[in-house]
Amino acid sequence: MGALGRVAWAWLLLLQLAGASHVVYENLLEVEAAAAAVPPSIVDPLLRTGYHFQPRKNWINDPNAPLYYKGWYHIFYQYNPKGAVWGNIVWAHSVSRDLINWVALKPAIEPSIPSDKYGCWSGSATTMPDGTPTIMYTGVNRPDVNYQVQNVAYPRNRSDPLLREWAKPSHNPIIVPGGGVNATQFRDPTTAWRAGGHWRLLIGSVTGSARGVAYVYRSRDFKRWTRVPRPLHSAATGMWECPDFYPVEAAGRREGLETSVSGSGRARVKYVLKNSLDLRRYDYYTIGTYDRRAERYVPDDPAGDERHLRYDYGNFYASKTFYDPAKRRRILWGWANESDTSADDVAKGWAGIQAIPRTVWLDRSGKQLLQWPIEEVEALRGKSATLKDRVIKPGQHLEVMGLQTAQADVDVSFEVPTLAGAERLDPALDGDAQRLCGARGAAVEGGVGPFGLWVLASADRRERTAVFFRVFSPARGGGKPVVLMCTDPTKSSLNPNLYQPTFAGFVDTDISNGKISLRTLIDRSVVESFGAGGKTCILSRVYPSLAIGKNARLYVFNSGKADVKVSRLMAWEMKKPLMNGA
Ligand SMILES: *[C@@H]1O[C@H](CO)[C@@H](O)[C@H](O)[C@H]1NC(C)=O
Ligand SMILES: *[C@@H]1O[C@H](CO)[C@@H](O)[C@H](O)[C@H]1NC(C)=O
Ligand SMILES: *[C@H]1O[C@@H](CO)[C@H](O)[C@@H](O)[C@@H]1NC(C)=O
Questions:
Q1: Please, are residues 184 and 147 in contact by the beta-carbon 8 Å criterion?
Q2: Does any ligand 3 atom lie closer than 6 A to the CB of residue 246?
Q3: Same domain (yes/no): 447, 311
Q4: How many folded domains does the chain comprise?
Q5: Residues lining ligand 2, CB < 6 A?
Q6: In what residue span(s) does the Glycosyl hydrolase family 32 C-terminal domain sit (predicted)?
Q7: What is the rounded end-to-end Cα distance, in angstroms, of the chain?
Q8: Which of 52, 283, 356, 481 is the most exposed place for a label (fewest CB within 10 A)?
């Protein structure tokens, strides 16, 4: 009997012993856990995500070239057709009418020419003035070293809204490293933008002194490209992968802007530059201004490259945005990797998902982006439960009953009557959300908070993933209360072989009125959360061993010393969309 079988057996026994005391039950599980020399299996199909994007099987990583064409959304992604570990990478391709229901097509780009024979890596799509999308991607052209060049591919049949066939013209590669560029660190072309008769795009790289750089290349015809001597921007971070560069409306408006929109006539356009840090494995961005003549980008916050404002403080990498002309919005895709072992990935036959696409726009403060799950995801909502005006006393928790929550959408508004009891922020941890959450996790009682949700929790709550807030009074006196948002998966599973660090970010919100909201998309082995209307986001991968399928529960908890009111909580079961035949 497998370890999971043993746990299931323990459950059955528990049911038979209905009436047996809690103690007996806990002992039973402990005995079971101890007996399980091998950890509980995570191969259970009930742990497979339901409404997050994924193929039927195998390994996936970076989203590539998201685009909209003739009524269809397209997503391409790095995919191993042969297994659940990285390798043999091709561009898999799926199409959708609504960004939620997906149909898999055959791979769009596979190694086939000298300049991509050893790899078809990440890239982006650009819409030509006649409406045709063009893909630019990184090819590896040597077997021994990862020597990287950039290639282009065009749709073979522009009348085909599904863009099934892609052609690689004979003038590939169109960009090769040179002039001191490190050929093994030269990849991931962005969507190109056009101004004054020139196309421009960025390619990520690193200098000899370990500065991440975004090189600008310019072209009149999309065939001959030349590098602008100075990069658009650089910072002392190590290699920049998957750069993304796009304009946003400065006024806090949700509407997105096409990538080639120019600042002239729109005085208040700002730019976002995002890079994926190869060394630290996360995506950070800055907001700033772009000088087209000088081909330079300057972050508004001079310390922006050190502060590392992130799209997401959890598992979220190699992201890319695109402009959706159908709904005039900018949408962000990002890859979420696994928290289990490669051996487990091989056993379960799949690894990696894409986060739910998010609409992104500039916050009214101008200092950060806001992100929110695309509205289409709400079409998956089914049976619901509501809580209203429920006070959660210190040390108390409340179960959200009446629906299955292994696959759910939860939206909750909290109200804290008084912030008087907020803990003082330890100056040594000021500014370091990650360490702060590590030191003050969900189990550490606080003043105001921790309060939030326990999701994917077992009935006895031995297993639970906490998504919560904790409010501090500022370390150096004065100023507004500091709000920490944290996901603590350290109790998410009895399986010891998981990567489950706490993830955290500060929430730049004024909580002096006591109000803060939290939305969490739960999907069997994903917990994707949006704090304060999308100011701080955290995606976490968890593999419960008890809180699986019907056994997954949802609670609101308060481990602070002050009352917390749930002004309103709505939770919905989420249906499974068409998902590439998965
Ligand atoms: C191009 O696509 C259209 C629309 O799908 C189809 O009707 C037509 O047969 C295709 N042409 C070729 C040459 O495949
Ligand atoms: C290129 O980058 C690789 C990986 O960082 C490094 O090992 C190598 O020394 C670099 N080559 C040059 C010429 O800088
Ligand atoms: C995701 O997996 C964890 C655990 O293996 C690693 O620590 C992360 O570096 C990895 N993230 C990415 C983006 O590769």
A1: yes
A2: no
A3: no
A4: 2
A5: 182, 184-185, 208
A6: 376-573
A7: 27
A8: 481
pLDDT digits (tens, 9 = 90+) for 279-326: 999 999 999 999 999 999 999 999 999 999 999 999 999 999 999 999
Q: Give SS3 for 115.
A: helix
Q: Are 237 and 152 found together in one domain?
A: yes
Question: Is the same domain home to 350 and 434?
Answer: no
Judgement on whether residues 90 and 198 belong to the same structural domain of the protein: yes
Q: Is any ligand 3 atom within 6 A of the Cβ of residue 281?
A: yes
Q: What CATH number is attached to the domain comprising 118?
A: 2.115.10.20
Q: Which ligand is nearest to the CA of 211?
A: 2
User: How confident is the model at residue 263, as a pLDDT?
Assistant: 57
Residues 480 and 527 in one domain: yes
Centre of ligand 1 from the C-alpha of residue 162, in Å: 10
Q: Is the CB of 70 under 6 A from ligand 1?
A: no
CA-nearest residue, atom 9 of ligand 2: 208
User: Which stretches of 269-316 are assigned E, i.e. beta strand?
Assistant: 269-277, 282-291, 296-299, 309-310
Cα radius of gyration rounded to whole Å, the chain: 24
Q: Name the residue type at position 318.
A: A
**Is the residue at 480 inside a domain?**
yes
Query: Residues 144, 185: one domain?
Result: yes
- The single residue listed with the structure tokens 């960025």 is 202
The residue segments making up the domain with residue 26 are 7-36+53-355
62 catalytic per annotation:
yes
Residue range 34-45: mean pLDDT, rounded? 61
Is residue 478, in this structure, part of any structural domain at all?
Answer: yes
Per-residue pLDDT tens for 171-205?
Answer: 999 999 988 999 999 999 999 999 889 999 999 99
Provide the 8-state DSSP code for 579: B
Structure tokens at 304: 């922006």
- Give the pLDDT score at 264: 55
- pLDDT above 60 (res 16): no
43: CB partners within 8 A, 6+ apart: 4, 344, 347, 348
Q: Choose the residue to mutate in 122, 320, 499 for probing ligand 3, maximizing ligand atoms within 8 Å of C-beta.
A: 499
SS (H, E, C) 461-479: CCCCEEEEEEEEECCCCCC
Q: Is the CB of 160 under 6 A from ligand 1?
A: yes
Give the bridge partners for 373, in sequence order. Answer: 358
Which ligand 2 atom is the nearest neighbour of the CA of 239? Answer: 5
Do 418 and 456 belong to one domain? yes
The verdict on residue 363 lying in a domain is: no
**Res. 266: pLDDT tops 80:** no
Residues 318, 407, single domain; the answer is no
Contact between 449 and 560 (Cβ < 8 Å): yes
Mutate to test the pocket of ligand 1, among 158, 159, 164, 165 (most ligand atoms within 8 A of CB): 159
Residue 449 lies in a domain: yes
Mean pLDDT of 61-83: 98
- 291, 321, 355 - which closes a domain: 355
Domain boundary among 321, 355, 389: 355
**Distance, CA 88 to ligand 2 centroid (Å)?**
24
pLDDT over 70 at 212, yes or no: yes
**Residue 424, ligand 3, Cβ within 6 A:** no
